[in-house]
Write a structure and sequence with these properties.
The chain has 193 residues and is mainly α. Helix content is 82%, strand content 0%. The radius of gyration is 17 Å and the shape is globular. The relative contact order is 0.19.
Length: 193
């Protein structure tokens, strides 16, 4: 009887983890599509790079996010474990689909065109989304994967590696959008998240 109960508890925990991952993906997608992307504010990691590449190449942000993450996901299986990698793959697929569904199919309009509001609320939505994804035992991809691999091979701390990666995204946003203020808004968005 206890084996059956233990199996049910594990199954319930697994379902709850996937619920967290889906809800987190939705929050993150709303933050990107509703606030950050229309205002050219890049958040951290691969989501930020996807926003930058979207404005450069006019390709769907979700597809770009998935493409940026593919090589990282392949490497992540080896370094981070199969279960974590599978959950992360699921999460990235969800985020990419939700972003493109909202942007390309629903044509979800910007919830604010004010840079301050878009930065704050976009950062909050992305932060809540990331928190839910982490609670589900996964990652939203990109920067977290790179950081975990680097910290497994070096003495660097995960937070420091993510800080460097986010700094690269912020500088790239400033260069691509040719606007230092947009880079500064991006920095605030990352901090809020």
């Amino acid at each position: 009887m206890s084996a059956l109960r233990e199996g049910l508890v594990k199954r319930k925990a697994m379902v709850l983890n996937y619920v967290y991952m889906v809800l987190g993906s939705i929050c993150l997608a709303v933050g990107v599509v509703g606030f950050l992307e229309p205002n050219k504010i890049a958040t951290g990691g691969t989501a930020g790079l996807s926003i930058i590449f979207h404005h450069l190449f006019e390709l769907p942000t979700g597809i770009l996010m998935a493409l940026i993450n593919v090589p990282l996901l392949i490497v992540s299986v080896r370094y981070l474990g199969r279960r974590f990698a599978l959950r992360t793959i699921f999460t990235i697929i969800c985020i990419s689909l939700f972003i493109d569904f909202l942007a390309e199919i629903v044509h979800f309009k910007a919830l604010s065109n004010d840079h301050l509001l878009a930065t704050l609320y976009g950062g909050i939505a992305v932060g809540i989304g990331l928190g839910l994804v982490f609670k589900g035992g996964a990652s939203a991809g990109g920067g977290t994967i790179i950081a975990r691999i680097v910290t497994s091979k070096t003495e660097m701390k995960t937070g420091f590696v993510i800080l460097i990666l986010d700094a690269i995204v912020v500088v790239s946003a400033g260069v691509v959008f040719r606007d230092v203020e947009l880079a500064l808004w991006s920095l605030i968005s990352i901090y809020v998240a």
